[in-house]
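Sequence, please.
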C-alpha cells in the first residue's frame, strides 16, 4: 500500500483522466465553475508507473476516470478493434482502479447502463427497471461486454464509485455525441422507451459524489424512460418545425449495425435515495429543449 497521506479533512482535489473527451471536457468546465481544484492527467490509463508518480505529486482526494474508447463514429468501431478496446477499456481501466486502491484514493469510473435489455421480468413500459445488483443480460456488443468485465471486477475495489451512464443528452445540438444529435441525424430511427442521462442534471451529481467520496455501483440516469419518437417530436416542436423522421424496427436496425444496441429501463431508486431532486426524464427533456433553443441561433437543417 502506498501512503498517499490523504485524509477526509483535505479540500476536494480531482485528478481527471479523459479531459480531451466529450464528458471529461464538460467536467473541467464544471470544476472551474464550482472552484473545485483539479488536475488533468495526460497519462494513458495503461501507464502504471507514471500514474503512480502523478498521484504522489498531485495528492488528489478523488480520481475521475472519463477516459475510455467509445469508438468513432460509434461503438461499432470496437467490433473491429477488439485489442485496442481491451487495452484501454479493460487493462487500462483496471490498472487505474488498482492503482487508486493501492494509493488509497477514491476513484470514480464511468461505466455504461447498456448491459441490460428488456425481458420477461422487466417488460417494456412496465415501470420495472433493472436494479444495480441484477445480473447482466445484454451481450450484443463488444463495447458493452468489455464494460461488464471491468464493472464486475471493480466491485472488489472498495474505494470505487461506478456510474452507469446511458444515451447521454446535452444541451447543444452541435455536439455529435449528444444522443439527440445522433438520432436526429439518422436516416431511420427505432422507437423504444429507454433510460437516459441528462448531463445538465447528472454531471453536478457526479462531481458531488467525487467530493463526498461515495462508493458503489449506481444506475446514473434520470428517473423514468423516454422514447426516440418523444424526443424527436420535441426537437421538431422546439428547434426545427420542418424536421421529419422515419421509424424502423429493432430487427431492421440490427441488420445495418455491426454491434447490437441495448434498450432498457434502469431503476434509479438507489441514486434517488441520495439525490431525490434529480428530475424525471420527461420533465428534464423539456428543460433540455428550452436551453437548446436559447443556445441555437439558427434552426438546424434536416437530412
Ligand atoms: N458518450 C456516451 O454515449 C457514453 C455512454 C455511456 C458511458 N460512456 C462512458 O463515459 C466515458 C467518457 O465518454 P465520452 O463520450 O466523453 O468519450 P470520448 O469523447 O470518446 O472521450 C474519451 C476520452 O478518453 C481518452 N482515452 C481513450 N483511451 C485512453 C487511454 N487508454 N488512456 C487515456 N485516455 C484515453 C480519450 O483521449 P484520446 O483521444 O487522447 O485517446 C478521450 O479524452 C467513457 O468511458 C464511455 O465509455 C459514454
Amino acid at each position: 500500500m502506498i501512503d498517499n497521506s490523504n485524509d477526509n479533512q483535505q479540500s476536494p482535489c480531482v485528478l481527471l483522466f479523459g479531459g480531451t473527451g466529450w464528458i471529461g471536457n464538460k467536467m473541467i468546465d464544471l470544476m472551474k465553475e464550482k472552484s473545485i481544484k483539479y488536475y488533468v492527467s495526460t497519462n494513458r490509463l495503461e501507464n502504471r508507473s507514471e500514474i503512480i508518480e502523478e498521484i504522489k505529486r498531485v495528492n488528489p482526494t478523488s480520481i475521475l476516470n472519463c477516459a475510455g474508447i467509445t469508438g468513432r463514429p460509434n461503438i461499432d468501431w470496437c467490433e473491429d478493434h477488439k485489442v485496442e478496446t481491451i487495452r484501454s477499456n479493460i487493462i487500462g481501466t483496471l490498472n487505474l482502479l488498482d492503482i487508486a486502491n493501492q494509493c488509497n484514493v477514491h476513484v470514480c469510473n464511468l461505466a455504461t447502463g447498456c448491459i441490460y435489455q428488456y425481458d420477461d421480468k422487466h417488460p417494456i413500459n412496465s415501470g420495472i427497471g433493472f436494479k444495480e445488483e441484477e445480473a447482466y443480460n445484454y451481450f450484443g456488443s463488444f463495447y458493452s461486454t468489455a464494460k461488464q468485465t471491468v464493472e464486475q471486477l471493480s466491485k472488489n475495489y472498495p474505494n470505487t464509485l461506478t456510474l452507469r451512464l446511458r444515451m447521454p443528452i446535452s444541451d447543444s445540438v452541435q455536439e455529435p455525441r449528444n444522443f439527440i444529435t445522433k438520432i436526429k441525424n439518422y436516416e431511420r430511427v427505432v422507437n423504444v422507451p429507454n433510460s437516459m442521462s441528462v448531463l445538465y442534471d447528472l454531471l453536478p451529481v457526479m462531481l458531488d459524489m467525487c467530493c463526498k467520496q461515495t462508493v458503489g455501483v449506481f444506475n446514473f440516469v434520470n428517473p423514468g424512460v423516454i422514447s426516440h419518437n418523444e424526443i424527436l417530436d420535441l426537437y421538431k416542436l422546439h428547434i426545427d418545425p420542418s424536421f421529419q423522421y422515419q421509424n424502423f424496427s429493432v430487427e431492421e436496425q440490427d441488420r445495418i449495425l455491426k454491434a447490437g444496441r441495448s434498450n432498457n429501463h434502469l431503476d434509479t431508486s438507489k441514486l434517488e435515495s441520495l439525490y431525490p431532486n434529480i428530475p424525471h426524464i420527461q420533465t428534464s427533456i423539456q428543460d433540455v429543449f428550452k436551453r437548446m433553443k436559447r443556445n441555437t441561433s439558427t434552426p438546424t437543417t434536416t437530412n
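Residues 17-18, 20-24, 44-46, 66-70, 88, 92, 110, 112, 165, 168, 177 surround NAP (CB under 6 Å).
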